[in-house]
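Memo to structure team: turn this sequence into structure tokens by end of day. - J.P.
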Amino acid sequence: MSHHLSQEKALLLGLEIGGTKLQLVAAETPRDMVLRQRIALPPRTGAADILQHISTALEAWKGVKWKAAGIGFGGPVDWPKGTVHCSHHIAGWDGMDLCGWLSTSSLSDFR
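Reply from structure team:
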């Protein structure tokens, strides 16, 4: 999946946060994926390290403009607020404002 990153068209971001891996995709439409990353996580990786992995992965796509994001998380979330209630498997997620973090992280072009 090669794609010219310095484009004007905003993309959709898909992010799946699991205990053993991260998956990130960028797509023009929900069915037209143009970029993809899969990152294996070491055992017992905590939330802070996972957020760092996400930042590093997104840095590789610097310059991409985002129009929306969908996040999959393996635990209860308060989806209207964009916060993680808790994780039963990974330390450090309790009360995390994941959407707030995402909008102020390396996604400065996130709309």
